[in-house]
Every structure is written in structure tokens, then in C-alpha cells.
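Lecture 7, part 2: worked example. A protein chain together with fe (iii) ion.
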Amino acid sequence: MPLELVTLPALSDNYVFLVHDSESGDTACVDVPDAGPVLDALKARNWSLTDIWLTHHHHDHIGGVDDLLGHYDAKVTGARADRHRLPRLNREVAEGDAFDFGGEQVGILDVSGHTEGHIAFILDASRYAFTGDSLMALGCGRLFEGTPAQMWESLQKLAELDPETLICSGHEYTRNNGRFALTVDPDNDALKDRMDRIDIMRGNDEPTVPSKLSEEVATNPFLRATDPAIQAHLDMTGSDPVDVFAEIRARKDRY
Ligand code: ZN
Ligand code: FE
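Predicted complex, written out as C-alpha cells:
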């Protein structure tokens, strides 16, 4: 049985996730844009927060940590490389590290690109990947600090996870991401189908996050820089995937 997963909207377009093990009572919150929705959700379920996992230093991912720590004595985990700009960490991690949570192993991947020191929390047994602003539904984070090569490498690590993995990313940007995706991958039927479903979901105000990795591999242009149809559409047939990725990212920045 996978651990219980709760997806909570926060601020204008962020997501916070709760992961809960009913046996041990362990409860983690992944990123804290704002403590309010987290406190409400914990109270409604009668859960006590034991862990806070931070993907990266941006304010919309850590702004509510201090407030939350005023209510719960939770252990804060984040990247050692980012300790100077994260809230005080109780556990500093880096790529390849793993720790126990709720009877499972939580693995750490370095997925820098959006920022340096951006990490993802991987729960292989439950098949959850908390990717923050690295791999997102139909998109990836803007390259504020890293290079295209770095982000491409980060996305490749995530693409190698079990295809059934749920990608729990930080924002509801999916509809706009999908509209852009269609400009570089216009003949992709899986993408068109997915966009039809996303339009309906957003019309009903339903979250499109988390999404399944297999679906991202089939439709997310940032994972598809080796795809012959995309390369042909960009007039980059046979190019280095990093260059193709960089071109897609540059077009998205202008979109
Ligand atoms: Zn960010
Ligand atoms: Fe963000």
C-alpha cells in the first residue's frame, strides 16, 4: 500500500503535498508556500506534522516554514548545498542520500537547473516523486540559476524512475504548458488527448497535479528533446538533445 498522499493548493498557483503513514503516524509536508492550508488539512485529519521536506529555496516553497514550526516540532530536511538560503535544517541531504520515513526509503536526487541545489524526494515503494520546480506537468521550471545541460540531465534522472511514478510538482501551470507544448509538438496525439482532458479538468477547477511519469514521457516536450518529430519541427534533426532542450526552453521563455 502506498503512503497516503494529499495535494493542497496554496497561494495563487502553488501545490503543497502531505505524505502520511497511518501506522507510525509520520506525516511530511513537501514545501510550504503558506502554512494556512497545511494547518487546516492536518487539523481536519487529526494528523501531527513530523517532517518538512524542502525542494529549493524560492520563497513560494519555503515562506510558510517558520509559521508551521510554530505549531509543530517537525524535522526540516533540505539540500546541504542550499543550507545558506533555506530555513534552519535538521537534516542536510545530497544526491544519493536516503532516509527512512513511514517504513519506506526516501531517496534524494539532485535536480538542479531551476536553481542550484534543487533536490527531488523519491519514494520508490509508494511511487511518488516530489519534484518542486524541476519536472512539472507538461513543463519544467525556468532556468534561473542552472544551464540547459544541467536541467536536461536532471530531467533524465527523473525520466528513469518507474513509469507509474506520480510526479508531484509545485505549480498549476499545466494548461499554459500544454498550449506551448502543442507549438513544438503539434502532431502528438497523446499530447492532444491530454490537453483535451486538462481543459475539462481546469474548467471544473480540478488540479492536474500530480501527473504520471509515463504520461510526461509521452507528452512533455522538455523530456522529448530526442524525439524525431520535435527535432524535425524545430529544424534540428540529429542535433544534440541538450541543444534541442535549450531551444524548447528558450521558446517557452518567450511564449
Ligand atoms: Zn521555484
Ligand atoms: Fe515555485
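The domain at 4-254 is CATH 3.60.15.10 (Metallo-beta-lactamase; Chain A). The chain has a mean pLDDT of 98. Keep this in mind for problem set question 3.
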